Amino acid sequence: MKAVGLYWRTLRHLTLRQVVYQVWNRLRGRPRLRWVSSTTPTNVPSISFPITFTFLNQTVTFTDRIDWNHAANGKLWTYNLNYFDWLNLSTQATALIYDFIRQTDSLNDGLEPYPTSLRLLNWRAFLRQEGIQDALIERHLYAQTALLESRLEYHLGGNHLLENACALTTLAIHFQHKAWFMKGSSLLRNQLNEQVLTDGGHYERSPVYHQLLTDRLLDLYAVLEANTWMPDKALCRYVQQKTAAMLNWLVSVTFRDGSVPMVNDSAYGVAPATADILAKARLLGFEPTAVQLTDSGYRMLTTPRMELFIDVGPVGPDHQPGHAHADTFSFVLHIDGKPVVVDPGTSTYQIGDRRTWERSTAAHNTVTVANQNSSEVWSGFRVGRRARTRIPIDTPQCVEATHNGYAHLNEQHTRRWTFINEITLSICDHFINDNLAKKYYLYFDHCLYLTAGQRVIRSTDYDITFVADNEPVVNLSTYEQAFGFNRSSTASRATLNISTPILKTIFTVNL
C-alpha cells in the first residue's frame, strides 16, 4: 500500500497531455529514421583509429569502430556522444558525421528526440561555420528533422520540449519548411510562456540548465534575427524578451567569482560559464542587469563581504520536477568572494545510492526530521509529496519562510536568515514538535580547513557559532563534494542533533 500511495502522490501532478503521450510513447516503440542506407556513397572520409571520447569525466577509446550505442557508462554518456557538440574540436568532424550516417539503421538512444534536437543544431552550426555544402548530410539532416517533428517530447515537457522547439524552428528556417516552422514556432511560444517565470528563472530551477537554455535561446535569437525567408518579427521580439529575462535572472544568481549555485541537478563542466554567456549576449545587443528574485523561489542576499543564496520556493514545476532535490531551506554562502557553505552538487544521473543521497534532504544545508526527506524524492527523477513554502518576511537583509514538507509528521520548519551587519549572518531554525529527531547538516567547500569545539566551528577567516537551550554538539566528518559528473573531492561536513525547538547559527567574519 505504501508503494500505491507513493505512485499516486507522484502521478497525480501530471497533465492530461503528459499522461496521453506517456502511453502513446510506450506503444509506438523506439524511433527509427526514414533513411535508405544504400544511398550512402562509398568515397567518403574514413576515421583514423583509435579515437577517444571523454564525456562526464569518463573516457572511452574506440579502436576499430565507433559504437554510437555505447551504453557501458550509462545513458547520459551515450547521449553526449550523440549530441555532436564536440564537433568543432574534432579534426575528423566530417568523417564522424559520415560514420554516424552509415550506422543509421543500428542507432538507438541517439535517435531519441532530445539528442536529435541537440545534434541537429550542432551539425547545422558546423556545416555553416565550415562552409560545407553536402547533399547527403543535408538529406540526413532533413530526415532527422522529420523524425523530431513526429516525436516531440510532450510526455516529458520541461527543458526537453523547449530544446525540441528550438531545434524544429531553427531547422524549419534552414530548410524553408513552412509547416515545420508553424509547428515549431507555436510550440516555442507556448513553452517560453510556460517555462520562463516572471523573474526570468527557468521553472525547473536548476542554474546550470538555466545557463544551457539561455545559451540556446541566444543562438535561436541570432537565427531568427537573420531570417529573411519567412521573417516573423513578433516571434523574434518575443524570444528576445524571454532571453533578456533569463539573462537578468542569471546575473542575479551568479556569485562574484563567476560561479552559480550547484543546486538541484547542477554540475560543473556541463554548461557555458555565465561570463561566456554574457559575452555572447552583448554581441547580440543584450545588456543584462540584476533583478529582484521572486517566483523562482530563490533569493540572493549580499553584503560587501558575504553572498547568501537561499531556497525558499517550490522544488520545481509540479508536472515536471525531475531535476529537483529535497533541498527546501538549503543555502549557499560565499565569504570574501570564495565558497564556504556549498551544495554538494550532482555527480551522476545513474539510479543508485549516490543519486539517492545527492537528491536527499540530508545532502543539503538544512534540517531533516525523523530521518526523512522534506520532499519525497525517489528513483532517479521522481518526486511524490512536495514541500510548500510561505514567506512572511522578504527583505534585502532578512528572509523568513515556513515549509510544510513534514506536515505528515505533525512538524513544521521555519527558518530565518538575517544579516545583522556586514560581517554577521544569523540563521534561526524553529520547530513545533519536540518529540521528533532532527539533524542539521552543513556542507563546506573542499578547500577549507576547519576545527570544531563544543558549539563552534572555526577557520582562519570566520567563526560559526551554534546557540540553543542546551549545549549543541558539533560533529565534523567528511563527504565527497561533486565537481562534475563522476568527479569529486573530499570535504568537511558538520552535523548537529537538534533536541530543542529553536537553534541559531551565527556566521561571523573576522575583521
TrEMBL record:
It is found in: Periplasm. Keywords: Lyase, Periplasm, Signal. Residues 124-267 form the Heparin-sulfate lyase N-terminal domain. PANTHER family: HEPARIN-SULFATE LYASE (PTHR39210:SF1). SUPFAM superfamilies: Chondroitin AC/alginate lyase. The lineage of its organism: Bacteria, Pseudomonadati, Bacteroidota, Cytophagia, Cytophagales. Pfam families: Hepar_II_III_C, Hepar_II_III_N. GO terms for molecular function: lyase activity. This is Alginate lyase family protein. InterPro entries: Chondroitin_lyas (IPR008929), Hepar_II_III_C (IPR012480), Hepar_II_III_N (IPR031680). Residues 291-435 form the Heparinase II/III-like C-terminal domain. The keyword Repressor does not apply. Gene3D superfamilies: 2.70.98.70, Chondroitin AC/alginate lyase. The keyword Signal applies.
